[in-house]
Amino acid sequence: MPQTLPAVLVIAGLDPSGGAGIQADIQTLSALQCHCTPVISINTVQDSRKLHQAHPVAPEILEQQLLTLEADFDFSAVKLGALGSAENAKVVAQSLLRITANNPSIAVILDPVLKASHGGLLGDESLQQTLLDEVIPYCTLITPNEPELKTLTGEPSPPHAAIKLAELGPSVLVTGGHNRNMADNTLENTLTIGAHQPGRAQRWLITLVDGEFRGTGCTFSSAIAGYMAQGFSITHAIEKAQHFISHTLESAYILKSGQRIPLRI
Ligand code: PLP
Q1: Is residue 214 within 6 Å of ligand 1 at its C-beta?
Q2: Which of 23, 56, 135, 228 has its CA 20 to 30 A from that of 83?
Q3: Domains of the chain (ranges plus CATH)?
Q4: Is 81 a pocket residue for ligand 1 (Cβ < 6 Å)?
Q5: Does the keyword Kinase apply (predicted)?
Q6: What is the ipTM of this complex?
């Protein structure tokens, strides 16, 4: 009998420079021996330095792709990145409604990407509102960095903002990449457990190699999705994903220009 691999549905944006977005997700999940079904929610014109344009895909195409895949696969996890528009987020919410009705314990991980690595918007306020109202209630875990946390909740205090999001259902892992201690390269990832979930709050102080990297948020959240697809608990998956990201940064590579790219393969 041929082996089987856990299938992970990824809905995310295309960064044609290859450093972030859905390419980072595909590489990470492949490295973790998961099968990624990649659905593109937003197309971008982007190089290693700058986001030039962003074009959400038509919601009708997204919907057809999701319906077709749902009919064909039993997913072990879902990973959501930049969804592009409120219309697309609504289509994704409908898909999550169907997927979670069939499989209530499936892990749904959202990296609420609102900006590209170098700045440049990948979503507007109506997308943010739709994430809060329609998508986040289906999520098992969301992985905002501090700027995303503040934008989504309007709440300046990170612990209060995390509790506000956790009250909507999911656990909230606030990633510390934007708050790195430059003296010793440490950062803190903080987990707040969701209103409807078992587990306890936790904090990890991790040390990463020095440098500016691209696509770290995508890589980290995909690694968590991959490990949860393999059956690890949220906290165990986070710990394993932290090890994975450390390795990818230690062996990161450079191209002609731009930030370093984690070696995910
Ligand atoms: N998705 C797309 C399409 C992007 O272009 C980017 C960054 O440029 C991201 C997601 C987020 O990348 P990061 O992992 O650096 O937060």
Answers
A1: yes
A2: 228
A3: 7-250 (3.40.1190.20)
A4: yes
A5: yes
A6: 0.91
